[in-house]
């Protein structure tokens, strides 16, 4: 079944390239994946999801797919939700339907493959597959300074991928494992001296992909220039690949990560505070959202820093749930906001904040949904981001006994100021866009509210924010599981 989730969008791409109706095939494929992906919540532990066969003997590499644990399930749910809404969003340029829908589907297939892979090689390979259509879509079908943005994101992410690959190869070699399977790697041990170097490469490699300061400058221009579905999928889903990878591989380099904790804290605070102030000064709605996405990565890194300080997930059981819930919440909220920003651009012809105003009068449904996404981004109680951010701040102080503030506790206190910063820029942007007097671009004579078909994807994401916000245990309960046992372990237990 896990292979089917990846094959459906790939088969749809083949059908599109062979002359099939692009939009119809893409929508059907994304919908089927959405149904299967949501269905996995109830049966993800079943062996029906598992697939593994060796594709290379030396080194031993397997095409191994399945749900390793609850974190994989949550990331797959995020992927299918954003993929379906991305397919239904944006406006495809006339005559470019094949490239448009094929690229969206390949990005989705790559993301699903990465989160379903239980072999480290294919975990990396599927992510790289998803990046190729990202570059093409920005460079060929983007807007504004699209060529410059495409080259910038290509250079940054290519260098990050090379550094990451070096770190992964070193990790596998140092582990002594005969395979690249997660279960075998995580059961091995690495010399503490080697861990320090491996941890550095992983932080830098994954950090570039996540837009960790100072490797963040590619993100906002790329998202601002990208077609809406690309911005939704990359900011909402693909960026989480790096955080997912760090959390997944952390047990192997936990000692080495300790050596870089101080530097990581400085960098994540730069994400929250420095990039936060940069976001306040943005004049365009799309650039503001791009920088906001970079800023929020700092909160997730804060949960990871709390995990490093504790030394294990057992010592700080809040850290990983905090990071995963916030990854999901941010992915949904930023995808919703990028979708609606594109709607604003198409209806008004601009996303310059100075040229917007009074849009709520002519497009009240658009104003309501954007307001919901904005409030989620701020961390309003009752919406998904609130649960994630509260867990992050609690994880920073988990186990604190009042004997003086440690570096993570200090960082947590400073990070609270980021909540104020995000409220400032998001509320200002909402007020500037939707309230006040109407201007030429937003006059009701020229701007109409979006119709039912356009409301469906936005409503799906909004409902997801509300469900997780009201009942975060729907995600947290998925994390209260042990890693899936290997086939060998199951056989031994039966004997």
Describe the model.
With 495 residues, the protein is mostly helical. It has a domain at 260-486. Helices cover 72% and strands 2% of the residues. It contains 22 helices and 2 strands. It has helices spanning 2-17, 22-43, 70-87, 97-116, 120-141, 146-175, 182-186, 192-210, 219-225, 228-238, 240-249, 254-258, 261-280, 285-310, 319-348, 359-362, 364-378, 384-396, 407-434, 452-470, 473-479, 487-494, and strands at residues 51-56, 61-65. Helix 3 packs antiparallel against helix 4 (97-116) and helix 3 (70-87) packs antiparallel against helix 20 (452-470). The longest helix is centred in the first third of the chain and has 30 residues, at 146-175. 56% of the residues are buried. Residues 486-495 have low confidence and may be disordered.
Helix-strand blueprint:
Blueprint: H1 2-17, H2 22-43, E1 51-56, E2 61-65, H3 70-87, H4 97-116, H5 120-141, H6 146-175, H7 182-186, H8 192-210, H9 219-225, H10 228-238, H11 240-249, H12 254-258, H13 261-280, H14 285-310, H15 319-348, H16 359-362, H17 364-378, H18 384-396, H19 407-434, H20 452-470, H21 473-479, H22 487-494
Antiparallel strand pairs: 1-2
Helix pairs in contact: 1-2, 1-4, 2-3, 2-4, 3-4, 3-10, 3-15, 3-20, 3-21, 4-5, 4-10, 5-6, 6-8, 6-9, 8-11, 9-10, 9-14, 10-15, 11-15, 13-14, 13-19, 14-15, 14-18, 14-19, 15-17, 15-18, 15-20, 17-19, 17-20, 18-20
Summarize the structure.
With 495 residues, the protein is an all-alpha fold. It has helices at 2-17, 22-43, 70-87, 97-116, 120-141, 146-175, 182-186, 192-210, 219-225, 228-238, 240-249, 254-258, 261-280, 285-310, 319-348, 359-362, 364-378, 384-396, 407-434, 452-470, 473-479, 487-494; strands spanning 51-56, 61-65. The protein has a domain at 260-486.
């Amino acid at each position: 079944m896990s292979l089917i989730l990846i094959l459906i969008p790939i088969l749809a791409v083949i059908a599109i390239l062979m002359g099939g109706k692009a939009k119809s095939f893409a929508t059907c494929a994304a919908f089927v994946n959405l149904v299967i992906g949501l269905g996995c919540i109830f049966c993800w532990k079943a062996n029906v999801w598992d697939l593994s066969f060796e594709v290379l003997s030396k080194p031993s590499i397997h095409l191994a797919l399945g749900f390793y644990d609850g974190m994989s399930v949550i990331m797959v749910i995020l992927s299918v939700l954003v993929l379906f809404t991305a397919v239904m969003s944006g406006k495809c340029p006339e005559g470019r339907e094949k490239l448009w829908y094929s690229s969206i589907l390949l990005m989705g297939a790559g993301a699903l493959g990465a989160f379903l892979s239980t072999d480290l090689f294919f975990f990396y390979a599927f992510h790289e597959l998803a990046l190729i259509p990202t570059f093409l879509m920005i460079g060929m079908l983007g807007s504004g300074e699209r060529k410059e943005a495409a080259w910038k994101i290509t250079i940054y992410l290519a260098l990050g991928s090379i550094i990451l690959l070096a770190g992964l190869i070193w990790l596998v070699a140092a582990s002594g494992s005969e395979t690249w399977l997660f279960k075998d790697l995580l059961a091995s041990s690495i010399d503490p001296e080697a861990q320090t170097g491996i941890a550095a490469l992983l932080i830098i490699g994954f950090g570039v992909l996540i837009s960790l300061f100072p490797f963040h400058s590619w993100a906002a221009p790329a998202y601002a220039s990208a077609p809406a579905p690309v911005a939704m999928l990359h900011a909402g889903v693909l960026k989480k690949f790096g955080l997912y990878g760090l959390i997944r591989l952390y047990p192997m380099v936990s000692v080495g990560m300790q050596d870089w904790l101080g530097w990581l804290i400085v960098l994540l605070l730069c994400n929250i505070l420095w990039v936060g102030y940069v976001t306040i000064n943005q004049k365009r709605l799309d650039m503001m959202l791009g920088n906001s996405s970079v800023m929020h990565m700092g909160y997730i890194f804060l949960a990871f820093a709390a995990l490093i300080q504790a030394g294990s997930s057992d010592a700080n059981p809040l850290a990983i749930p905090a990071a995963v819930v916030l990854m999901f919440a941010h992915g949904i909220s930023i995808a919703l906001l990028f979708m609606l920003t594109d709607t604003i651009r198409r209806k008004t012809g601009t996303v310059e904040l100075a040229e917007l105003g009074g849009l709520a009068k002519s497009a009240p449904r658009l104003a309501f949904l954007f307001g919901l996404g904005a409030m989620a981004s701020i961390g309003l109680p009752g919406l998904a981001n609130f649960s994630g951010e509260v867990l992050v701040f609690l994880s920073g102080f988990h186990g604190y006994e009042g004997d003086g503030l440690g570096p993570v506790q200090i960082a947590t206190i400073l990070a609270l100021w980021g909540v104020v910063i995000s409220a400032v820029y998001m509320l200002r942007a909402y007020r500037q866009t939707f309230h006040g007097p109407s201007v030429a671009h937003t006059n009701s004579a020229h701007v109409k509210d979006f119709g039912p078909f356009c409301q469906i994807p936005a409503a799906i994401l909004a409902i997801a924010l509300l469900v997780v916000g009201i009942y975060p245990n729907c995600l947290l309960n998925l994390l209260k599981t042990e890693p899936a046992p290997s086939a060998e372990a199951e056989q031994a237990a039966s004997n």
